[in-house]
Amino acid sequence: MSEGGQPTFTSLGVAEPILRALNEVGYESPTPIQAASIPHLLEGRDILGMAQTGTGKTAAFALPLLSRLNTKSNNTQMLVLAPTRELAIQVAEACQTYAKYIPDFHVLPIYGGQAYDSQLRQLRRGAQVVVGTPGRVMDHIRRGSLNLDNLEALVLDEADEMLRMGFIDDVEWVLDHTPAGRQIALFSATMPSQIKRVAQKYLNDAQEVKIAGKTATATTIKQKYWRVSGLHKLDALTRILELQQFDAMLTFVRTKSATEELAEKLSARGYAAEALNGDMSQQQRERTVERLKNGKTDILVATDVVARGLDVERISHVLNYDIPYDTESYVHRIGRTGRAGREGEAILFVAPREFRMLRSIERATNQPIERMDLPSAADINVKRVDRFKQRISETMDSTDTSLFLDILADYQQEHDSDPLHIAAALAHLLQGKTPLLISEREPRPERDRGDRGDRGDREDGRQRRDRRRGEFSKDARPLKGKPEVAMERFRVSVGHEHGVLPKNIVGAIANEANLKAEFIGQIEIYDEFSTVDLPAGMSKEAMQALGRVYVCGQRLKIESVANDSGRRPPRNARNKRPHRGRGDRPAPKKQDK
Ligand code: AMP
Fold first, then answer.
1. Which residues form ligand 1's pocket by a CB distance below 6 Å?
2. Residue 359 is part of which domain span?
3. How many structural domains are present in the chain?
4. Whole-model pTM above 0.70?
5. Pocket probe mutation, ligand 1, options 14, 25, 31, 89, max atoms within 8 Å of Cβ
Protein backbone atom coordinates (compact mmCIF):
# COMPACT_ATOMS: atom_id res chain seq x y z
CA MET A 1 0.00 0.00 0.00
CA SER A 2 1.11 3.56 -0.56
CA GLU A 3 0.93 6.03 2.27
CA GLY A 4 -2.62 6.75 3.41
CA GLY A 5 -3.61 3.11 2.83
CA GLN A 6 -4.38 3.73 -0.83
CA PRO A 7 -3.82 0.63 -2.92
CA THR A 8 -1.25 0.72 -5.71
CA PHE A 9 -1.14 -1.42 -8.82
CA THR A 10 1.74 -3.29 -7.18
CA SER A 11 -0.09 -3.89 -3.91
CA LEU A 12 -3.11 -5.14 -5.87
CA GLY A 13 -0.88 -7.78 -7.44
CA VAL A 14 -0.68 -6.69 -11.07
CA ALA A 15 2.11 -8.59 -12.85
CA GLU A 16 5.51 -6.97 -13.24
CA PRO A 17 5.64 -6.47 -17.03
CA ILE A 18 2.26 -4.79 -16.89
CA LEU A 19 3.40 -2.51 -14.06
CA ARG A 20 6.19 -1.40 -16.33
CA ALA A 21 3.76 -0.52 -19.09
CA LEU A 22 1.49 1.33 -16.66
CA ASN A 23 4.36 3.39 -15.47
CA GLU A 24 5.07 4.32 -19.05
CA VAL A 25 1.48 5.30 -19.73
CA GLY A 26 1.60 7.40 -16.57
CA TYR A 27 -1.21 5.85 -14.53
CA GLU A 28 -0.34 6.77 -10.99
CA SER A 29 -2.84 4.79 -9.00
CA PRO A 30 -5.80 2.49 -9.58
CA THR A 31 -9.20 4.08 -10.08
CA PRO A 32 -11.88 2.91 -7.60
CA ILE A 33 -13.35 0.37 -10.01
CA GLN A 34 -9.86 -0.99 -10.64
CA ALA A 35 -9.03 -1.19 -6.93
CA ALA A 36 -12.26 -3.08 -6.34
CA SER A 37 -12.08 -5.44 -9.33
CA ILE A 38 -8.42 -6.35 -9.72
CA PRO A 39 -7.96 -8.51 -6.58
CA HIS A 40 -11.08 -10.59 -7.30
CA LEU A 41 -10.15 -11.16 -10.91
CA LEU A 42 -6.59 -12.04 -9.98
CA GLU A 43 -7.95 -14.68 -7.64
CA GLY A 44 -9.98 -16.15 -10.45
CA ARG A 45 -13.39 -15.07 -9.17
CA ASP A 46 -16.31 -13.92 -11.31
CA ILE A 47 -17.36 -10.34 -10.96
CA LEU A 48 -20.40 -8.26 -11.74
CA GLY A 49 -19.19 -4.71 -12.18
CA MET A 50 -21.35 -1.63 -12.39
CA ALA A 51 -19.22 0.86 -14.23
CA GLN A 52 -19.57 3.18 -17.13
CA THR A 53 -17.04 4.40 -19.66
CA GLY A 54 -14.55 6.80 -18.17
CA THR A 55 -14.20 5.01 -14.84
CA GLY A 56 -11.21 2.98 -15.99
CA LYS A 57 -13.22 -0.22 -16.43
CA THR A 58 -11.17 -1.51 -19.34
CA ALA A 59 -8.03 -1.64 -17.24
CA ALA A 60 -10.13 -3.00 -14.34
CA PHE A 61 -10.53 -6.28 -16.22
CA ALA A 62 -7.58 -6.14 -18.59
CA LEU A 63 -4.83 -5.70 -15.98
CA PRO A 64 -5.67 -8.73 -13.82
CA LEU A 65 -6.68 -11.01 -16.67
CA LEU A 66 -3.56 -10.18 -18.67
CA SER A 67 -1.53 -10.76 -15.51
CA ARG A 68 -2.81 -14.34 -15.49
CA LEU A 69 -2.13 -15.07 -19.12
CA ASN A 70 0.10 -17.92 -20.19
CA THR A 71 1.99 -16.61 -23.20
CA LYS A 72 3.92 -19.84 -23.62
CA SER A 73 0.76 -21.05 -25.31
CA ASN A 74 -0.93 -19.44 -28.29
CA ASN A 75 -4.37 -20.74 -27.32
CA THR A 76 -7.15 -18.23 -26.85
CA GLN A 77 -7.39 -17.79 -23.10
CA MET A 78 -9.33 -14.57 -22.83
CA LEU A 79 -12.34 -13.45 -24.84
CA VAL A 80 -13.94 -10.02 -24.57
CA LEU A 81 -17.36 -9.39 -26.07
CA ALA A 82 -18.07 -5.77 -26.87
CA PRO A 83 -21.15 -4.17 -28.43
CA THR A 84 -19.45 -2.30 -31.27
CA ARG A 85 -16.45 -2.77 -33.48
CA GLU A 86 -15.10 0.55 -32.21
CA LEU A 87 -15.17 -0.60 -28.61
CA ALA A 88 -13.64 -3.92 -29.65
CA ILE A 89 -10.76 -2.08 -31.30
CA GLN A 90 -10.31 0.21 -28.30
CA VAL A 91 -10.22 -2.69 -25.86
CA ALA A 92 -7.76 -4.55 -28.07
CA GLU A 93 -5.58 -1.45 -28.24
CA ALA A 94 -5.71 -1.02 -24.48
CA CYS A 95 -4.67 -4.69 -24.02
CA GLN A 96 -1.82 -4.15 -26.44
CA THR A 97 -0.66 -1.12 -24.46
CA TYR A 98 -0.83 -2.86 -21.10
CA ALA A 99 0.84 -6.01 -22.45
CA LYS A 100 3.64 -4.14 -24.21
CA TYR A 101 6.29 -5.89 -22.11
CA ILE A 102 4.73 -9.36 -22.16
CA PRO A 103 6.73 -11.35 -24.69
CA ASP A 104 4.86 -13.21 -27.44
CA PHE A 105 1.59 -11.53 -26.62
CA HIS A 106 -1.10 -11.46 -29.30
CA VAL A 107 -4.46 -9.75 -29.18
CA LEU A 108 -6.93 -9.84 -32.04
CA PRO A 109 -10.03 -7.71 -32.57
CA ILE A 110 -12.71 -9.41 -34.69
CA TYR A 111 -15.85 -7.69 -35.80
CA GLY A 112 -18.51 -7.65 -38.48
CA GLY A 113 -17.77 -5.82 -41.67
CA GLN A 114 -14.11 -6.82 -41.64
CA ALA A 115 -12.89 -9.26 -44.27
CA TYR A 116 -12.89 -12.84 -43.05
CA ASP A 117 -9.63 -13.93 -44.65
CA SER A 118 -7.40 -11.69 -42.57
CA GLN A 119 -9.30 -12.66 -39.40
CA LEU A 120 -8.99 -16.34 -40.27
CA ARG A 121 -5.28 -15.98 -40.96
CA GLN A 122 -4.69 -14.25 -37.66
CA LEU A 123 -6.85 -16.70 -35.75
CA ARG A 124 -4.84 -19.56 -37.24
CA ARG A 125 -1.65 -17.87 -36.10
CA GLY A 126 -3.11 -17.73 -32.59
CA ALA A 127 -4.10 -14.93 -30.23
CA GLN A 128 -4.22 -15.34 -26.47
CA VAL A 129 -6.77 -12.54 -26.30
CA VAL A 130 -9.67 -12.10 -28.71
CA VAL A 131 -11.92 -9.08 -28.53
CA GLY A 132 -15.00 -9.14 -30.71
CA THR A 133 -18.57 -8.21 -31.41
CA PRO A 134 -21.00 -11.02 -30.56
CA GLY A 135 -22.16 -11.80 -34.11
CA ARG A 136 -18.70 -12.21 -35.57
CA VAL A 137 -17.46 -14.19 -32.58
CA MET A 138 -20.42 -16.53 -33.04
CA ASP A 139 -19.56 -16.94 -36.72
CA HIS A 140 -16.00 -17.93 -35.92
CA ILE A 141 -17.06 -20.38 -33.23
CA ARG A 142 -19.48 -21.98 -35.70
CA ARG A 143 -16.85 -22.19 -38.42
CA GLY A 144 -14.42 -23.71 -35.95
CA SER A 145 -11.93 -20.92 -36.58
CA LEU A 146 -12.16 -19.71 -32.98
CA ASN A 147 -11.39 -22.48 -30.55
CA LEU A 148 -12.41 -21.74 -26.99
CA ASP A 149 -11.48 -25.09 -25.43
CA ASN A 150 -8.73 -23.44 -23.43
CA LEU A 151 -10.61 -20.29 -22.54
CA GLU A 152 -9.83 -19.09 -19.03
CA ALA A 153 -11.74 -15.83 -18.90
CA LEU A 154 -14.66 -14.19 -20.63
CA VAL A 155 -15.46 -10.50 -20.33
CA LEU A 156 -18.81 -9.00 -21.23
CA ASP A 157 -18.08 -5.33 -21.72
CA GLU A 158 -20.92 -2.81 -21.77
CA ALA A 159 -23.41 -5.63 -21.35
CA ASP A 160 -26.39 -3.25 -21.23
CA GLU A 161 -25.31 -1.77 -24.54
CA MET A 162 -25.18 -5.27 -26.04
CA LEU A 163 -28.68 -5.83 -24.72
CA ARG A 164 -29.89 -2.54 -26.21
CA MET A 165 -28.43 -3.44 -29.55
CA GLY A 166 -30.24 -6.74 -29.54
CA PHE A 167 -27.20 -8.96 -29.05
CA ILE A 168 -28.22 -10.62 -25.81
CA ASP A 169 -29.20 -13.93 -27.43
CA ASP A 170 -25.87 -14.02 -29.24
CA VAL A 171 -24.06 -13.28 -25.99
CA GLU A 172 -25.84 -16.19 -24.31
CA TRP A 173 -25.04 -18.42 -27.26
CA VAL A 174 -21.35 -17.57 -26.90
CA LEU A 175 -21.55 -18.11 -23.14
CA ASP A 176 -23.04 -21.55 -23.79
CA HIS A 177 -20.10 -22.37 -26.05
CA THR A 178 -17.37 -21.67 -23.51
CA PRO A 179 -15.88 -24.22 -21.14
CA ALA A 180 -17.65 -24.58 -17.82
CA GLY A 181 -14.73 -23.57 -15.61
CA ARG A 182 -14.00 -20.19 -17.25
CA GLN A 183 -14.01 -17.04 -15.20
CA ILE A 184 -16.50 -14.30 -16.14
CA ALA A 185 -16.33 -10.55 -15.68
CA LEU A 186 -19.54 -8.76 -16.59
CA PHE A 187 -19.44 -4.98 -16.80
CA SER A 188 -22.48 -2.85 -17.33
CA ALA A 189 -23.29 0.81 -16.69
CA THR A 190 -26.83 -0.15 -15.64
CA MET A 191 -28.35 -3.42 -14.46
CA PRO A 192 -31.58 -4.07 -16.36
CA SER A 193 -33.37 -7.25 -15.38
CA GLN A 194 -32.16 -9.20 -18.44
CA ILE A 195 -28.56 -8.51 -17.50
CA LYS A 196 -29.22 -9.59 -13.94
CA ARG A 197 -30.77 -12.75 -15.30
CA VAL A 198 -27.71 -13.49 -17.45
CA ALA A 199 -25.50 -12.81 -14.43
CA GLN A 200 -27.51 -15.19 -12.26
CA LYS A 201 -27.51 -17.88 -14.89
CA TYR A 202 -23.84 -17.81 -15.85
CA LEU A 203 -21.80 -16.20 -13.11
CA ASN A 204 -20.49 -18.31 -10.30
CA ASP A 205 -20.56 -16.76 -6.81
CA ALA A 206 -19.93 -13.38 -8.42
CA GLN A 207 -18.44 -10.53 -6.46
CA GLU A 208 -20.43 -7.36 -7.02
CA VAL A 209 -18.29 -4.36 -7.64
CA LYS A 210 -19.50 -0.82 -7.88
CA ILE A 211 -18.24 2.57 -6.92
CA ALA A 212 -19.61 4.03 -3.72
CA GLY A 213 -21.66 7.13 -4.27
CA LYS A 214 -22.68 8.54 -0.91
CA THR A 215 -21.03 11.88 -0.38
CA ALA A 216 -21.73 15.40 0.75
CA THR A 217 -20.18 18.66 -0.37
CA ALA A 218 -19.18 21.68 1.65
CA THR A 219 -21.73 24.35 0.90
CA THR A 220 -19.23 27.21 0.89
CA ILE A 221 -17.87 25.92 -2.39
CA LYS A 222 -19.29 27.41 -5.54
CA GLN A 223 -19.33 24.77 -8.26
CA LYS A 224 -19.34 25.40 -11.98
CA TYR A 225 -18.57 23.48 -15.10
CA TRP A 226 -17.35 24.51 -18.51
CA ARG A 227 -18.34 22.39 -21.44
CA VAL A 228 -15.17 21.76 -23.37
CA SER A 229 -15.79 23.15 -26.81
CA GLY A 230 -14.14 25.43 -29.30
CA LEU A 231 -11.00 26.06 -27.30
CA HIS A 232 -8.21 23.85 -26.05
CA LYS A 233 -8.45 23.16 -22.36
CA LEU A 234 -5.13 24.88 -21.84
CA ASP A 235 -6.37 28.07 -23.51
CA ALA A 236 -9.56 27.88 -21.48
CA LEU A 237 -7.58 27.54 -18.29
CA THR A 238 -5.37 30.52 -19.08
CA ARG A 239 -8.42 32.64 -19.86
CA ILE A 240 -9.83 31.75 -16.48
CA LEU A 241 -6.52 32.48 -14.78
CA GLU A 242 -6.27 35.87 -16.48
CA LEU A 243 -9.65 37.08 -15.45
CA GLN A 244 -10.46 35.25 -12.25
CA GLN A 245 -9.26 36.67 -8.97
CA PHE A 246 -7.58 33.73 -7.33
CA ASP A 247 -5.26 33.25 -4.45
CA ALA A 248 -3.96 29.74 -5.06
CA MET A 249 -5.29 27.08 -7.37
CA LEU A 250 -5.17 23.31 -7.32
CA THR A 251 -5.61 21.74 -10.74
CA PHE A 252 -6.37 18.06 -11.17
CA VAL A 253 -5.31 15.88 -14.07
CA ARG A 254 -5.35 12.11 -14.53
CA THR A 255 -1.75 11.08 -14.98
CA LYS A 256 1.65 11.83 -13.52
CA SER A 257 2.96 12.87 -16.90
CA ALA A 258 0.04 15.26 -17.34
CA THR A 259 0.88 17.00 -14.04
CA GLU A 260 4.33 17.80 -15.37
CA GLU A 261 3.22 18.78 -18.83
CA LEU A 262 0.50 21.11 -17.66
CA ALA A 263 2.71 22.69 -15.00
CA GLU A 264 5.37 23.31 -17.63
CA LYS A 265 2.89 24.82 -20.06
CA LEU A 266 1.48 27.13 -17.41
CA SER A 267 4.98 28.18 -16.37
CA ALA A 268 5.76 28.95 -20.01
CA ARG A 269 2.71 31.20 -20.01
CA GLY A 270 4.04 33.09 -17.04
CA TYR A 271 2.27 31.43 -14.11
CA ALA A 272 3.96 30.16 -10.99
CA ALA A 273 2.89 26.56 -11.43
CA GLU A 274 4.37 23.28 -10.19
CA ALA A 275 3.54 19.60 -10.51
CA LEU A 276 2.68 17.41 -7.54
CA ASN A 277 2.72 13.70 -8.25
CA GLY A 278 3.56 10.30 -6.88
CA ASP A 279 6.91 10.14 -8.65
CA MET A 280 8.17 12.81 -6.28
CA SER A 281 9.66 11.85 -2.93
CA GLN A 282 7.71 12.69 0.19
CA GLN A 283 10.23 15.41 0.92
CA GLN A 284 9.89 16.98 -2.53
CA ARG A 285 6.14 16.94 -2.21
CA GLU A 286 6.25 18.59 1.18
CA ARG A 287 8.54 21.29 -0.15
CA THR A 288 6.19 21.94 -3.07
CA VAL A 289 3.18 22.23 -0.79
CA GLU A 290 5.18 24.56 1.44
CA ARG A 291 5.88 26.80 -1.56
CA LEU A 292 2.16 26.94 -2.25
CA LYS A 293 1.49 27.84 1.39
CA ASN A 294 3.96 30.70 1.45
CA GLY A 295 3.00 32.06 -1.97
CA LYS A 296 6.19 31.13 -3.81
CA THR A 297 4.01 29.19 -6.18
CA ASP A 298 0.33 29.77 -7.00
CA ILE A 299 -0.81 26.76 -8.95
CA LEU A 300 -0.28 23.09 -8.20
CA VAL A 301 -1.10 20.54 -10.85
CA ALA A 302 -1.80 17.26 -9.09
CA THR A 303 -3.22 13.78 -9.37
CA ASP A 304 -5.94 12.61 -6.99
CA VAL A 305 -3.75 10.51 -4.77
CA VAL A 306 -1.10 13.05 -3.85
CA ALA A 307 -3.64 15.78 -3.23
CA ARG A 308 -5.66 13.72 -0.77
CA GLY A 309 -5.86 15.48 2.57
CA LEU A 310 -4.00 18.55 1.32
CA ASP A 311 -4.90 21.38 3.64
CA VAL A 312 -3.77 24.78 2.42
CA GLU A 313 -6.01 27.69 3.36
CA ARG A 314 -4.81 29.76 0.41
CA ILE A 315 -6.42 27.43 -2.12
CA SER A 316 -9.30 29.53 -3.38
CA HIS A 317 -9.90 27.47 -6.52
CA VAL A 318 -9.95 23.85 -7.53
CA LEU A 319 -9.91 23.26 -11.24
CA ASN A 320 -10.81 19.81 -12.49
CA TYR A 321 -8.89 19.91 -15.75
CA ASP A 322 -9.65 16.22 -16.27
CA ILE A 323 -12.91 14.94 -14.87
CA PRO A 324 -12.48 12.49 -11.96
CA TYR A 325 -13.26 8.80 -12.26
CA ASP A 326 -15.94 8.79 -9.62
CA THR A 327 -18.07 11.10 -7.55
CA GLU A 328 -16.09 10.46 -4.41
CA SER A 329 -12.85 11.73 -5.94
CA TYR A 330 -14.73 14.81 -7.07
CA VAL A 331 -15.81 15.54 -3.53
CA HIS A 332 -12.27 14.94 -2.21
CA ARG A 333 -10.87 17.23 -4.88
CA ILE A 334 -13.17 20.17 -4.33
CA GLY A 335 -12.87 19.77 -0.58
CA ARG A 336 -9.29 21.07 -0.96
CA THR A 337 -10.78 24.55 -1.25
CA GLY A 338 -13.19 26.32 1.07
CA ARG A 339 -10.88 25.37 3.96
CA ALA A 340 -11.33 26.88 7.39
CA GLY A 341 -14.76 28.26 6.49
CA ARG A 342 -13.39 30.31 3.60
CA GLU A 343 -15.17 30.61 0.30
CA GLY A 344 -13.95 28.41 -2.48
CA GLU A 345 -14.71 27.83 -6.08
CA ALA A 346 -14.56 24.60 -8.02
CA ILE A 347 -14.50 24.50 -11.80
CA LEU A 348 -14.93 21.33 -13.80
CA PHE A 349 -14.00 20.87 -17.46
CA VAL A 350 -16.44 18.43 -19.03
CA ALA A 351 -16.06 17.10 -22.55
CA PRO A 352 -19.36 16.19 -24.21
CA ARG A 353 -18.69 12.48 -23.78
CA GLU A 354 -18.25 13.01 -20.04
CA PHE A 355 -21.69 14.45 -19.42
CA ARG A 356 -22.90 11.26 -17.81
CA MET A 357 -20.24 11.60 -15.14
CA LEU A 358 -21.25 15.22 -14.55
CA ARG A 359 -24.84 14.11 -13.97
CA SER A 360 -23.66 11.34 -11.62
CA ILE A 361 -21.69 13.89 -9.63
CA GLU A 362 -24.70 16.17 -9.38
CA ARG A 363 -26.87 13.28 -8.25
CA ALA A 364 -24.37 12.01 -5.70
CA THR A 365 -23.64 15.42 -4.22
CA ASN A 366 -27.26 16.42 -4.47
CA GLN A 367 -26.22 19.77 -5.84
CA PRO A 368 -26.56 21.16 -9.32
CA ILE A 369 -23.34 22.32 -10.90
CA GLU A 370 -23.86 25.56 -12.76
CA ARG A 371 -22.73 25.91 -16.35
CA MET A 372 -20.21 28.68 -16.90
CA ASP A 373 -19.03 30.52 -19.98
CA LEU A 374 -15.42 31.32 -20.50
CA PRO A 375 -14.32 34.95 -20.43
CA SER A 376 -14.53 36.26 -23.98
CA ALA A 377 -11.53 37.54 -25.89
CA ALA A 378 -12.97 41.05 -25.49
CA ASP A 379 -13.10 40.65 -21.66
CA ILE A 380 -9.52 39.45 -21.66
CA ASN A 381 -8.38 42.32 -23.88
CA VAL A 382 -10.00 44.99 -21.69
CA LYS A 383 -8.17 43.48 -18.74
CA ARG A 384 -4.86 43.33 -20.62
CA VAL A 385 -5.09 46.94 -21.73
CA ASP A 386 -5.91 48.01 -18.16
CA ARG A 387 -2.95 46.09 -16.84
CA PHE A 388 -0.68 47.54 -19.49
CA LYS A 389 -1.72 51.07 -18.56
CA GLN A 390 -1.24 50.26 -14.91
CA ARG A 391 2.30 49.08 -15.58
CA ILE A 392 3.08 52.36 -17.31
CA SER A 393 1.79 54.32 -14.31
CA GLU A 394 3.68 52.15 -11.84
CA THR A 395 6.92 52.51 -13.76
CA MET A 396 6.52 56.27 -14.06
CA ASP A 397 5.75 56.56 -10.35
CA SER A 398 8.39 54.31 -8.94
CA THR A 399 11.33 54.07 -11.30
CA ASP A 400 14.08 56.48 -12.19
CA THR A 401 13.66 56.84 -15.95
CA SER A 402 15.99 59.85 -16.35
CA LEU A 403 18.52 57.99 -18.49
CA PHE A 404 15.85 56.97 -21.00
CA LEU A 405 14.28 60.43 -20.87
CA ASP A 406 17.58 61.91 -22.05
CA ILE A 407 18.06 59.34 -24.81
CA LEU A 408 14.50 59.75 -26.04
CA ALA A 409 14.69 63.53 -25.92
CA ASP A 410 17.76 63.25 -28.15
CA TYR A 411 15.98 60.82 -30.43
CA GLN A 412 12.97 63.04 -30.75
CA GLN A 413 15.09 66.01 -31.72
CA GLU A 414 17.16 64.03 -34.20
CA HIS A 415 14.11 62.55 -35.94
CA ASP A 416 11.57 65.17 -35.21
CA SER A 417 9.12 62.38 -34.29
CA ASP A 418 5.87 62.44 -32.42
CA PRO A 419 6.58 61.38 -28.79
CA LEU A 420 3.51 59.15 -28.84
CA HIS A 421 4.88 57.28 -31.82
CA ILE A 422 8.15 56.77 -30.04
CA ALA A 423 6.31 55.46 -26.98
CA ALA A 424 4.24 53.14 -29.16
CA ALA A 425 7.36 51.75 -30.84
CA LEU A 426 8.91 51.10 -27.43
CA ALA A 427 5.75 49.41 -26.20
CA HIS A 428 5.91 47.18 -29.25
CA LEU A 429 9.52 46.33 -28.46
CA LEU A 430 8.63 45.58 -24.87
CA GLN A 431 5.77 43.31 -25.86
CA GLY A 432 8.08 41.07 -27.88
CA LYS A 433 6.55 38.24 -29.85
CA THR A 434 3.54 37.66 -27.61
CA PRO A 435 0.64 39.73 -28.89
CA LEU A 436 -0.93 42.02 -26.29
CA LEU A 437 -4.44 41.25 -27.47
CA ILE A 438 -6.06 37.94 -28.34
CA SER A 439 -8.69 37.31 -30.95
CA GLU A 440 -11.80 35.25 -30.43
CA ARG A 441 -11.28 32.07 -32.34
CA GLU A 442 -14.02 31.17 -34.75
CA PRO A 443 -16.03 28.70 -32.67
CA ARG A 444 -16.06 25.29 -34.26
CA PRO A 445 -19.32 23.85 -35.48
CA GLU A 446 -21.21 21.73 -33.03
CA ARG A 447 -20.04 18.59 -34.80
CA ASP A 448 -18.89 16.38 -32.03
CA ARG A 449 -15.74 17.88 -30.75
CA GLY A 450 -15.29 14.95 -28.43
CA ASP A 451 -12.61 15.80 -25.95
CA ARG A 452 -10.88 17.86 -28.57
CA GLY A 453 -10.71 20.64 -26.03
CA ASP A 454 -7.60 19.06 -24.63
CA ARG A 455 -5.81 18.51 -27.87
CA GLY A 456 -2.94 20.53 -26.58
CA ASP A 457 -2.39 17.94 -23.91
CA ARG A 458 -0.97 14.51 -23.98
CA GLU A 459 -3.41 11.92 -25.04
CA ASP A 460 -3.32 8.21 -24.82
CA GLY A 461 -4.11 5.84 -27.66
CA ARG A 462 -7.68 5.54 -26.61
CA GLN A 463 -8.24 9.28 -26.54
CA ARG A 464 -6.57 9.61 -29.89
CA ARG A 465 -8.92 7.02 -31.25
CA ASP A 466 -11.92 8.83 -29.74
CA ARG A 467 -10.74 11.96 -31.43
CA ARG A 468 -10.35 10.33 -34.76
CA ARG A 469 -13.80 8.99 -34.44
CA GLY A 470 -15.08 12.40 -33.43
CA GLU A 471 -13.91 13.72 -36.75
CA PHE A 472 -15.86 11.67 -39.21
CA SER A 473 -16.16 14.70 -41.38
CA LYS A 474 -15.51 15.19 -45.02
CA ASP A 475 -12.39 17.16 -44.37
CA ALA A 476 -11.02 15.21 -41.47
CA ARG A 477 -11.34 11.69 -42.77
CA PRO A 478 -8.72 10.35 -45.05
CA LEU A 479 -10.30 10.11 -48.45
CA LYS A 480 -7.97 7.45 -49.64
CA GLY A 481 -9.88 4.27 -50.26
CA LYS A 482 -13.13 5.96 -49.34
CA PRO A 483 -16.12 4.89 -51.38
CA GLU A 484 -17.68 7.57 -53.53
CA VAL A 485 -21.36 7.49 -52.69
CA ALA A 486 -24.07 10.16 -52.83
CA MET A 487 -24.99 10.96 -49.24
CA GLU A 488 -28.13 12.05 -47.49
CA ARG A 489 -28.34 13.66 -44.09
CA PHE A 490 -30.37 12.00 -41.33
CA ARG A 491 -31.35 13.08 -37.89
CA VAL A 492 -31.26 10.72 -34.89
CA SER A 493 -32.82 11.42 -31.49
CA VAL A 494 -29.72 11.12 -29.39
CA GLY A 495 -27.31 13.93 -28.53
CA HIS A 496 -24.80 15.30 -26.05
CA GLU A 497 -27.45 15.25 -23.36
CA HIS A 498 -27.58 11.49 -23.56
CA GLY A 499 -23.83 11.21 -23.49
CA VAL A 500 -23.59 9.90 -27.03
CA LEU A 501 -20.32 9.59 -28.91
CA PRO A 502 -19.92 9.24 -32.66
CA LYS A 503 -18.75 5.69 -32.06
CA ASN A 504 -22.11 4.76 -30.52
CA ILE A 505 -23.95 6.00 -33.58
CA VAL A 506 -21.47 4.39 -35.94
CA GLY A 507 -21.64 1.13 -34.00
CA ALA A 508 -25.43 1.00 -33.98
CA ILE A 509 -25.80 1.88 -37.63
CA ALA A 510 -22.98 -0.35 -38.76
CA ASN A 511 -24.35 -3.31 -36.85
CA GLU A 512 -28.05 -2.81 -37.46
CA ALA A 513 -27.98 -1.73 -41.10
CA ASN A 514 -24.86 -3.75 -41.71
CA LEU A 515 -23.24 -0.74 -43.23
CA LYS A 516 -19.47 -0.62 -43.29
CA ALA A 517 -18.11 2.22 -41.20
CA GLU A 518 -16.56 3.84 -44.25
CA PHE A 519 -20.03 4.39 -45.68
CA ILE A 520 -21.02 6.36 -42.62
CA GLY A 521 -20.24 9.99 -43.29
CA GLN A 522 -20.09 13.10 -41.19
CA ILE A 523 -21.64 12.95 -37.74
CA GLU A 524 -22.55 16.13 -35.94
CA ILE A 525 -23.64 15.89 -32.35
CA TYR A 526 -25.97 18.53 -30.94
CA ASP A 527 -27.39 18.78 -27.46
CA GLU A 528 -30.61 16.87 -28.04
CA PHE A 529 -30.02 15.12 -31.35
CA SER A 530 -27.36 14.34 -33.92
CA THR A 531 -27.11 14.24 -37.65
CA VAL A 532 -25.41 11.57 -39.64
CA ASP A 533 -24.69 11.33 -43.34
CA LEU A 534 -25.54 7.97 -44.89
CA PRO A 535 -25.65 6.73 -48.44
CA ALA A 536 -28.70 8.25 -50.13
CA GLY A 537 -31.68 5.96 -50.67
CA MET A 538 -31.24 3.54 -47.77
CA SER A 539 -33.77 0.72 -47.99
CA LYS A 540 -37.03 1.01 -46.07
CA GLU A 541 -36.19 -2.11 -44.06
CA ALA A 542 -32.81 -0.74 -43.04
CA MET A 543 -34.44 2.52 -41.97
CA GLN A 544 -37.09 0.68 -39.97
CA ALA A 545 -34.46 -1.46 -38.28
CA LEU A 546 -32.45 1.63 -37.41
CA GLY A 547 -35.50 3.47 -36.10
CA ARG A 548 -35.94 0.73 -33.52
CA VAL A 549 -32.38 0.70 -32.26
CA TYR A 550 -31.54 2.13 -28.85
CA VAL A 551 -28.36 4.12 -28.31
CA CYS A 552 -27.52 5.56 -24.89
CA GLY A 553 -31.01 4.70 -23.73
CA GLN A 554 -32.69 6.57 -26.62
CA ARG A 555 -34.54 5.19 -29.62
CA LEU A 556 -32.64 6.40 -32.67
CA LYS A 557 -35.87 7.40 -34.46
CA ILE A 558 -33.90 8.06 -37.59
CA GLU A 559 -35.44 10.44 -40.13
CA SER A 560 -34.18 12.22 -43.17
CA VAL A 561 -33.37 15.86 -42.58
CA ALA A 562 -35.07 16.63 -45.89
CA ASN A 563 -38.37 15.37 -44.41
CA ASP A 564 -37.83 17.30 -41.25
CA SER A 565 -39.81 20.31 -42.45
CA GLY A 566 -41.08 21.34 -39.02
CA ARG A 567 -37.61 21.99 -37.63
CA ARG A 568 -34.83 24.12 -38.88
CA PRO A 569 -32.24 21.84 -40.41
CA PRO A 570 -29.01 21.99 -38.50
CA ARG A 571 -26.12 24.04 -39.75
CA ASN A 572 -24.73 22.83 -43.04
CA ALA A 573 -27.48 20.27 -43.28
CA ARG A 574 -28.99 21.50 -46.50
CA ASN A 575 -27.92 20.20 -49.87
CA LYS A 576 -24.74 18.82 -48.50
CA ARG A 577 -23.26 15.90 -50.32
CA PRO A 578 -20.02 15.13 -48.58
CA HIS A 579 -19.07 12.41 -50.98
CA ARG A 580 -20.38 13.00 -54.42
CA GLY A 581 -19.89 10.06 -56.65
CA ARG A 582 -21.22 7.30 -58.78
CA GLY A 583 -23.86 6.32 -56.32
CA ASP A 584 -22.57 2.78 -55.97
CA ARG A 585 -24.21 2.52 -52.64
CA PRO A 586 -23.93 -0.62 -50.58
CA ALA A 587 -27.04 -2.73 -50.27
CA PRO A 588 -27.88 -2.63 -46.57
CA LYS A 589 -28.30 -6.17 -45.35
CA LYS A 590 -27.85 -7.83 -42.00
CA GLN A 591 -24.66 -9.72 -41.55
CA ASP A 592 -22.99 -9.28 -38.20
CA LYS A 593 -25.79 -10.84 -36.25
P1 AMP B 1 -12.36 3.49 -19.55
O2 AMP B 1 -13.31 3.70 -18.40
O3 AMP B 1 -11.83 2.14 -19.61
O4 AMP B 1 -13.03 3.97 -20.81
O5 AMP B 1 -11.06 4.46 -19.32
C6 AMP B 1 -11.14 5.85 -19.34
C7 AMP B 1 -9.79 6.51 -19.53
O8 AMP B 1 -9.05 6.49 -18.31
C9 AMP B 1 -8.88 5.89 -20.57
O10 AMP B 1 -8.36 6.94 -21.35
C11 AMP B 1 -7.76 5.23 -19.77
O12 AMP B 1 -6.53 5.26 -20.46
C13 AMP B 1 -7.70 6.09 -18.53
N14 AMP B 1 -7.29 5.36 -17.31
C15 AMP B 1 -7.73 4.14 -16.91
N16 AMP B 1 -7.19 3.82 -15.72
C17 AMP B 1 -6.41 4.85 -15.34
C18 AMP B 1 -5.59 5.11 -14.18
N19 AMP B 1 -5.51 4.24 -13.19
N20 AMP B 1 -4.93 6.29 -14.13
C21 AMP B 1 -5.04 7.18 -15.15
N22 AMP B 1 -5.79 7.01 -16.25
C23 AMP B 1 -6.47 5.85 -16.36
1. 27, 30-31, 34, 53-59, 254-255, 460, 462-463
2. 221-376
3. 4
4. no
5. 31
